[in-house]
Amino acid sequence: MGRTVDIDVGGTFTDLVLTWDDRRITAKAPTTPYDLSVGFLDVLTDGAEQLGKDIDELLPDIELVRYSTTVAMNRLIERKGPRLGLLTTEGHEDAILIGRGAQWTDGTRISERRNLAIQRKPEPLVTRDMIAGIRERVDSFGQVLRPLDEDDVRRKLRRLVDGGARAIAVSLLWSFANPAHEKRIREIIREEYRSYHVGYLPVVLSHEVVGKVGEYERTMTAVLDAYLQSSIKAEMEQTWDQLREHGYRGSFLLTHNTGGSAEIFKTTASRTYNGGPIAGLMGSYHIGQALGFRNVIASDVGGTSFDLGMVVDASVRSYEFRPIIDRWMVGISMLQATTMGAGGGSIAWVNELLGNRLEVGPRSAGSYPGPVCYDLGGTEPTTTDADVVLGYIAPDGYFNGRMPLDRDKAAEAIRVKIAEPLGVSVDEAAALIRQVIESTMASAIQREVHLRGYHPEDFVLFAFGGGGPTHVAGYGADVPTAVIFPQAPVFSALGSSVMDVMHVYEQSKRILFLNGMTQELTADHEAYNAPIRDMVAQARADLTSEGLDPDEAVFTVELDMLYGGQVQVKRVSSPLLEIHSEADAAAVYDAFEKEYSEAFSPHVVNKPGGAYIESIIVKATVPQEKLELPVHELGGADPSAARTTSREAYWPELARRVDTPVFAFDRLTPGHRVEGPGLVEAEFTTIVVPPGRVLAIDEHGLGLLQHASPVETSAPTPVLEGAPA
Amino acid sequence: MSFPPLAEKLAALKVSAPSEDELSCLDAVATGAYEIGVQRTADILDEGYEVFMRSSRSQMGVAGDSIVAIFNAQGDLVNASAGTYLHAVIPPIVIKFILARFRQNPGIADGDIWYTNDALYGGIHNPDQVAIMPVFFEGELVAWTAALSHTTETGACEPGGMPVSAKSRFDEGMNLPPMKIGHNHVLRDDVIEMFAAFGLRSETSVTVDLRARCTTADRVRVRLLEMFAREGRDFVVGLFRKMLMEAEAGSRKRLSSWPDGTYRCATFSDAAGMENGLLRNCYMTMTKSGDHLEVDFTGTSPENGSSYNAHPQAVIGHLANYIYEYVFHDLPISSATFQPIDFVFPENSMLSPAPNAATSCAVMAATGAMSAIANCVGRARFGTAEWRQVSAALGNGGNASVLAGVSQWGMPFADMLAYTINTEGSGGRSTADGINAYGFPWCAFGRAPDVENMENELPMLVPFSQHWEDSGGAGKYRGGVGTAQLWVAHHAPFVVFMSIADNSIIQTPQPLFGGYSQCTCPGLTMEDVDIPELLRAGDEGRLDLASLLEGKYGGRIVSESYARTARPVTGDQVITLGISTGGTGYGDPLDRDPEAVERDLTDGMISEWAATHVYGVRFNAQTGRVDLSGTAELRAERMRARIAGGRTWDDFHADWSTRKPPEEILGLYGSWPDAAVVTPLMRM
Questions:
Q1: CB-CB neighbours of B123 under 10 Å
Q2: Mapping DSSP to helix (H, G, I), strand (E, B) and coil, where does residue B473 land?
């Protein structure tokens, strides 16, 4: 299995999966926001110790380090990036401030948008005075309408630098169709500010980060890359230096939100956004494949968020419809991962306007002050407080015993803020808090599953993150089986350990693929093949420069296509790398029609309007070694050998407290069955097994949480004829 | 009578009295289960809303200009997911009409699909169409579902579904009263054929959107049945009733906190269809007493011979846009939230016209009501704990333009240019400016396209696209500005252009507390200027609206009404200046923070002229920064001038009440000054 290090730097914890030949070691350490390399070294030291080594002995033998991070997101939230300048086409300076109108809705939840009186557009990353319009213009055919005025560039560049610009984004209209003006502007900047100058200016050209139509999304991607580059670079440099200092000589890969990973030197900042949840999703995909599951729901319950990703029909090729980073639409393709404000820190409150309705979230107590039971000054009861009060989480066992919790304070907060206003007991109130938040999570799962035309019964649910195993019995009720991994609390890092190296290239190019009037498919095959050949050549060069063998890479083509007169673009997988005949073109069109009608509705297929290709995407994937799950013989069902203690816990199903057996996850062996009510403690999490459920340990040592008796399903409901799934 | 009279429509908006059965079912809804049930209805609706957008063909459907809703068995709206709240008012009227008239013949059965787009029977205007399905659980009618959206073709006398030249409902194409268009879960082919025939100009849009509505209503029905099966019939029936009761209680609680009083607002417009003239398009008297609100439209101009009329429920729908976004934003979209509100509509006014009136541009006729409610409610709430919610009226110009021809891809096209309608400014607020280019007042979440997408899809060039300087109403808190784009025909020998709007002479929305109204929207075109040629020549002039208006590009500037009938424009010539209106101002501009004025100037939101003459701000000639003491002096001077020019109420009234606009612009107004019907309108 090789020797690799996979790190996931989250907002609260830094997780490690250390693969050492046939061993897989996990560790967790608090994230150190002041210097992330400290938490990185802490968790690495912990992992090394588990191997009986010190870090200087470990690192020279490590072949690969992969890293996913939330730093990009945190920098955005804190607005701690450098002052930027933006050079754009004259007359279009306001594009990123107008933000296609309702910019204020981007990155917000539906429930947050209703109150129009309090809405604001996000604080811009580039203020209007730092945006300069350049005299130039290219039209939609890539033809130069207005030549680049170089004196104008120099004048405006000087103004931006005088205004304090520390990095420059350049985004001109139609630059992806004709990049000559953007490239020349970079040359001019380099002429004016040499790389050896103290005030060296990083420059990001929009066509190099996004090669497709849509100036708002493309410009914002360039702006974000310029904005985040220095902070991510600083973080990476600290970590990189530490790795080198301790003897590491291998590659350093970053997890991308495309579902692959690539060398740090080939990574733009926006590609690292949401890396953790995507790593969790990709882990679910690869492990699901190993286990033979075609449909997997990947669910991650953390301190502040609930992340959800879907593996459907053994594929994760589902992209965000309108990809957003923080509050900004971007032009890059990101795998779809739903994030909602529901986690251990979600605050419970009573909505008096709606007849004392109990609500949980989306506000979160975060990690500081955190839940009341942390005793760091938090006063609002949270999900974790409910877990502690109910007896599910042992106050002296949280975070492997390293963080003692104050159960009494949690109970008092729930009594005052929830139980008394609702007129119920503290236990009942705590159970209601869990019920409400788990129901919110369950609803999100149902919605995601239904929108893809499936039912929850068609899936298995992977529950991970520190809170996944604690709540999955509640939020996964419609899914017959929840799978809980021994590495659940560090699952995203585990996921990154099985991710492929992948590069994604995109070019916007409108091709009339099916003529609406004649119903003839395109005969200009070269228009289709030429950009693909260019991108494959670029990919081969990039892989070679990373020390990889391009002949080992798998190249695939995806297309953004739509029908004439429509606005819904669909990303479809092309069955062919190139087309050379009418039959080839027909195969590509048929694939589009099938995917389009499945995604939207068969009723919106509009051949008379013609079919267009908007963008062509080439993926170069170098497969990495996959996880092999050990197979053990199943033993007896009696888990009593793994029982460590018992404690009182309240079970709403029984409406009372009962003395509940507690088991150690690492002592349960294949074949064991823990009947609910029961609690199973692992290093950084607790699996809650309510009455009526059973946790069975399978042949791979994984926990399968199921109903003790099968759930009845009702007869199918008749549906409208011709309705899409 | 064949259609529901006003009293029946207004009664249908009220929540039905709970039955004994429903009251007994309340016991099945325990704390905890209730919250989860509410969330489940919201999730079902959100799923339906998503399915609706994905299944729709028309741009507005795709953008989410729609609503998906759940009703109890009596037809009361329980909850909805929406981009357009105005649609919430429609289905209860239609469902209750179906229950009252068609229960026996043709009967209401499981698998039925009901449909209507007729404003006479409860709709907004006929491009807005609704599919409704009954939900039967174990043989009992337990609920209804509905999906409603706008389609831009109805087979009217002009393309696009909103014919400005329609003179009666008989010019407006398909008007379908509530009828069963499918049974046994099958949509009838002959009905689809009828839709296709009415929608010949854009057949696919019409039939695909029809199916999308039916698909969505059915999806919600299926999910509701799953909920009934899982949670039990009594729970869901009790849940729906409890949701209605709590929404009403929440609504009454909020209204109770406002001071009792009478609040009035008059709004005006400058055109009805293609006929120019002054109209008092809304005269609102809002009386608040205890937990009750009455909204009276007496004093609104008479109905007119154009399509700029709105039936009463369409007017109430336009109030719902404001009410659900600013007043009951934290309550469900539910019939119950309107329970404490009553309405009075004067007969034969443009907000309650005769049955044969054309109403396809009802959304333009109702802009007055949409902005007057913001004004009245804003004043009612200002002295309450909710003062932070107070906001001056949104821009609501709805400057819609249509471009048609053969595209650069060789394909015929006819499309609405979505940029201007989706970038209007919002009103100044009690704590902040309005949002610049905030969105579309009828569907706040609608999005404007990228310029590159416009140029990619259509044979046009957009030389500039910018915030429109000085377009937001001035105020202590400025109205958000709109946008301005120059549109040029490009890559085609010619295109055909038309547009729909008013507000070229007078703006409808009224500002608040001394703020100013936004500027008007002229229809500006430049003749005899080849913009691409100017660009090729490397012209050094700055490319923006100010330069255009100063004549720096040459050519001849033509100013007309924004509404223009179809006309051809040859290649590389200017089509028009596409503009979206700003929001109204809040508070006295002389109270505006001078530094905010400086920032506005830097950001291009206001001109130097406005900074000095409207906001009374002086700048240091050397640094360009605000001169605080100079500003204080200038403002004091302005205040003294105001006081010096002041008059007593009696003096003012004596003069004001004798003034009257010229007769030639009062043809649409009604009697002066009361706007009563002078001559009954005859329609053929």
A1: 31
A2: coil
Shortest CA gap B289–chain A (Å): 20
Measure the CA–CA gap between A360 and A366, rounded to whole angstroms.
Answer: 14
C-alpha B178/C-alpha B102 separation (Å) is: 10
Query: pLDDT band at residue A603, thresholds of 50, 70 and 90?
Result: low
B444-503 pLDDT, tens digit per residue, is 888 899 999 999 888 999 999 999 999 999 999 999 999 999 999 999 999 999 888 889
Sort out which chain A residues have CB atoms less than 8 A from B543's CB and list them: 90-91, 133
For A150-179, the DSSP string reads: HHHHHHHHHHHHHTT-SEEEEE-TTTTT-T
Q: Which of B452, B464, B466 to mutate to test the interface with A (most CBs of A within 10 A)?
A: B452
A634 CB contacts (<8 Å, ≥6 apart)?
A670, A671, A698, A699
**CB-closest option in A139, A440, A603 to B490:** A139
Residue B304's pLDDT band, with cuts at 50, 70 and 90, is: very high
Residues of A in contact with B414 (CB under 8 A): none
Judged on CB neighbours under 10 Å (0-12, 13-18, 19+), B518 is buried
Rounded to a whole number of angstroms, the distance from the CA of A340 to the nearest CA of chain B is 14
pTM metric for this prediction: 0.89
B520, B542 in Cβ contact below 8 A?
no
How far apart, in whole angstroms, are the C-alpha atoms of residue B371 and residue B509? 5
Q: Compute the distance between CA of residue A685 and CA of residue A615 in angstroms, rounded to an integer.
A: 44
The ipTM estimated for the assembled molecules is: 0.93
Q: Is the peptide bond before A362 cis (omega within 30 degrees of 0)?
A: yes
Interface contact flag, B409 A173, Cβ < 8 Å: no
Yes or no, beta carbons of B208 and A135 under 8 Å apart: no
Strands A167-171 and A144-146, bridge-based pairing = unpaired
d(CA A62, CA A53): 13
Q: Cβ contact (<8 Å) for A717 and B225? A: yes
Alpha-carbon gap: B631 to the closest alpha carbon of chain A (Å): 23
Distance from C-alpha of B362 to C-alpha of A7, rounded to nearest angstrom: 59
Contact A460, A481 (CB under 8 A): yes
Q: Which amino acid is at B665?
A: I
Q: Which residue has the tokens 């029908």?
A: A563
Task: Test A214 with B429 for CB contact under 8 angstroms.
Answer: no
- Which of the residue ranges A155-169, A428-442, A497-511, B646-660 would you say has the lowest mean pLDDT? A497-511
CA–CA separation, B663 vs B678, rounded Å?
Answer: 14
Q: pLDDT tens across A623-643, in order?
A: 877 777 888 999 999 999 999
Residues within 8 A of A (CB atoms), B 230-289 only: 245-247, 249-250, 253-254
- For residue B204, the chain A residues in CB contact (below 8 A) are 565, 606, 608-609
Question: Percentage of chain A with pLDDT > 70?
Answer: 94
